Every structure is written in structure tokens, then in C-alpha cells.
Amino acid sequence: MKAIFYLSVALCAVYAACGSAASEQQQAQTADSVAMCHTGQIPSRFAAMRQDSLIKAGSSDERGMVLIPSGKFKMGSLNFEDAQPIHEVQLDSFYMDEHEVTNAQFAAFVEATGYVTVAEQPLDPKDFPGVDPKLLVPGSAVFAAPEEVAGLSDPMQWWSYVPGANWQHPEGPSSTIKGREQFPVTQIAYPDAAAYAKWAGKRLPTEAEWEYAAKAGRHSNETYYWGNDKKEDGKWLANIFQGTFPTSNTKEDGYVGTAPVRSFPANAWGLYDMEGNVWEWCVDFYRPDAYTLDRGQQNPKGPADSYDPQEPGAVKRVQRGGSFLCNDQYCERYKAGSRGKGEVNSPTNNVGFRCVKDIN
């Protein structure tokens, strides 16, 4: 059934992905145990849109990728209800991109294929009965810091749907990726990420692969993927939000929005930005009870379907790593073992991806 888009409801998507650590945390978690900072609750504006099946699978080498060795690890976190129980997982070796896919890399894909992302595709009013046609214009959700807010319960105070926002114009038509070629590409819906991965001869990671790679064989119960201290020798180790969310980012880490890839230290396996910067799509369907299901612990692929109690009809995939908007006041899901979620056709300017590749 084709979804009807309501702009005001759609923008509330942003709320369901980042947990509040402020006084409103209990209120937020009452509505959703997985509070998120981007597209968790937004019914898809693009639910009726086609998925591109014309992209041909490509071949790739392993340049720019890191070999992740096979092994076992403890997956999950006691700090997040949907990341429990902690359980042991065994994974085969695989290759993973050392950093998020960049604007330059995605531009090469578009140039080679003519691919049009979800946020750029025209909308047919026939697919959205009852919706004002003036609202049915290509665009996407964009974060903009307000001067003041009345609490943190209404994400529409800092998110808005911006016509013309897409991967080439991540903050809207007046923005550009020129000069930001080495920044992570954003405004990417799940089908966009999957299409790129197919063209590149790769695939999107499972969330087990993602977490295993982030822990790099050295960490298990620490607060962050690098350890228990947020800073090292006074230096920030990830691009997250400092200051008072969402009104004042003090830019202590050097960035207000996304940062160029490799701006922060790599982990022990040579992977960059496994916390912060942009959320990263994983192939797994999202379910809050995923870890309680009998899904097998050898190279798990995730549940067979998606279910979010807050939006039972929405198809959601897991997102990992948090973004430049995460902070301990509102969004804690950049921390080790935490899980994000996103409606598959709802891009924002803090969501990107990286790829993995099987060892042939």
C-alpha cells in the first residue's frame, strides 16, 4: 500500500534515532526505547518510488579497504535495551572501506551510471492521494540549529524538509559539495547506498560485521569503541556535537557539520570514523528484539523482516556509528554497541555509508 506523506509527521522522523541523556530522556524513551537523531520515526515520503534495478554489478579491488580478520567477539551493550542480550558472534574475514564513501566517490558512480538518488526523484501526486501537490517536490530533511528551543521533545525545532536538498546540495539548493570532495556523501537513502555498493563490486555490511570492525579486536565493554575516555590527551577522537544541543555547537572538535574522512584517528585495524561524523547504513532489517531471536551466531545476517513498534508499517534498516549531531545531552547512540535505525527511503544530511567486500 502506498504511503501518504504528511510533512509535519515526516519531519518527526528525526526524533526516533538519538537518545536523550537530558532530563527528558525518560519521556523520550517512553515513546521509543531507541531514541535517535535523524529519521527513525518519519514515514517515508518516498515509499511509492521505484527502486533502481538497472545498476550492473561491478568488480573491484581492495584498494582503500582494510582486511578484517576472522574471529569471535561479544556483540551488544548493556546500556541500550535493543542491543541486548550481549552475545558471542563468529565472523569470517572480509574487507571494509577504511572510511565512509566520499562525495568524490559517489560522484564517480553517478557519472558512470546516471543514477538518480531517492531525494532527487520526482514525485507523482497520484501516488500520494490527499497530499497538497505543492509539497510533493524532491528534497530531503536538513538539520539547522535554532536560536532557542522549548525542550528537546519536538525535533521539528531543528529539522526541516528542504526542497532541493540532495547529495549534491546536502543543506539545500544554496549549498554545494564543491570543495568537499573528501567529505562523506550524505542525503543517501538505503537504496542509494545499495546501488553504489553493487556498482562498486561490494556490498553493505551486516551490523555484526560493522560492530566487530569498530571494536577492532581490542574492546568489549568500554563506553566508546576506543575505550572509556571521551578524549585522548585532551583531543577529541570523533566528530560529535559539543556544546548545548541543538542551539550551540562550540566546535571543540573543529567541525560544526561533517568532517573530511580521515580527520580523526583510525582504530587499531585502520578504520576511520567508526564513531560520529555520519550514520552508516547496514544491511540488517531493524527490530528492537533482533538479539533475542534465533538468528545464528556464525556470520549473522539479521532478522528476516523489519518491525518498529512505533511505526509497525515502516521498513527500517540498521544504521551504525552516530553522527556529528550526537552528544550526551540528546543523542548517545554513537557509543559502543548501540544501534540506530532509519526508514529505508528517508535520507538526511547526517546519514552516509561505507562498503564491505567478501574474500573470494
From TrEMBL:
<dbReference type="Pfam" id="PF03781">
    <property type="entry name" value="FGE-sulfatase"/>
</dbReference>
<dbReference type="InterPro" id="IPR016187">
    <property type="entry name" value="CTDL_fold"/>
</dbReference>
<protein>
    <submittedName>
        <fullName>Formylglycine-generating enzyme family protein</fullName>
    </submittedName>
</protein>
<feature type="region of interest" description="Disordered">
    <location>
        <begin position="294"/>
        <end position="313"/>
    </location>
</feature>
<dbReference type="InterPro" id="IPR051043">
    <property type="entry name" value="Sulfatase_Mod_Factor_Kinase"/>
</dbReference>
<dbReference type="InterPro" id="IPR005532">
    <property type="entry name" value="SUMF_dom"/>
</dbReference>
<feature type="signal peptide">
    <location>
        <begin position="1"/>
        <end position="22"/>
    </location>
</feature>
<feature type="domain" description="Sulfatase-modifying factor enzyme-like">
    <location>
        <begin position="63"/>
        <end position="357"/>
    </location>
</feature>
<keyword id="KW-0732">Signal</keyword>
<dbReference type="InterPro" id="IPR042095">
    <property type="entry name" value="SUMF_sf"/>
</dbReference>
